[in-house]
Specification:
Blueprint (H helix, E strand, L loop, with lengths): L9 H8 L6 E4 L2 E4 L5 H17 L5 E3 L4 E4 L2 E3 L3 E4 L13 E5 L5 H13 L6 E5 L5 E7 L5 E7 L3 E2 L8 E2 H5 L5
């Protein structure tokens, strides 16, 4: 008889994942293997990190893919994370902004379940979803009442955020990709 899979806590997951060459996220206590990014995805990630870093208001800073603890049984790995304040030597449990670059295989999950989980994260101000093959960014921004409102930026638009010193034109992100 097969043994039922036991849920892992974040602590158990991190101890388990530390010895694995692959990257995983923890979803409801179950490790989920993450596929490597496509070339457009990876290039957009590097461009965005550079552009954000150049425009970020201090004391905020941009981090690459890093485990973000959402609760005891959930740790996700966004493509980029913006954190503000002092550096911490412990695991990341707070973020001002999370960024996901969409792929065909994960777009539905990222825009649905993953977005809803991020929205529960205390202190999170914004979630950005970028399409790597078209000029489109969807921004979910926390309003004063705590609810999130959505804005789509397309074409020749620019991304604005209270975290940035100046707007980030989509030309700066998508121009190098030939889009």
């Amino acid at each position: 008889m097969a043994r039922a899979l036991q849920r892992m806590t974040v602590d158990e997951f991190e101890a388990w994942a530390e010895h694995r060459p692959e990257r995983y996220e923890l979803v409801e206590g179950v490790p989920r293997l993450m596929a490597g990014p496509s070339e457009p995805h990876a290039e957009l990630q590097v461009i965005l990190a550079s552009e954000l870093r150049a425009r970020m208001k201090p004391p905020c800073r941009v981090l690459g893919p890093v485990g973000l603890v959402l609760d005891r049984y959930n740790e996700r790995v966004p493509d980029l994370v913006v954190v503000c304040g002092e550096r911490q030597d412990k695991r990341l449990e707070r973020a001002a902004l999370v960024v996901e670059i969409l792929s065909e295989g994960t777009a539905e999950y990222d825009l649905g379940e993953k977005r809803l989980r991020y929205m529960q994260l205390e202190g999170l101000q914004e979630i950005w979803f970028l399409w790597p093959r078209q000029r489109q960014v969807q921004i979910w921004r926390r309003e004063v009442d705590g609810r999130f409102a959505v804005e789509d930026v397309i074409g020749r638009g620019a991304l604005t955020s209270p975290l940035l010193e100046e707007p980030l034109p989509l030309d700066a992100l998508y121009g190098p990709l030939g889009l």
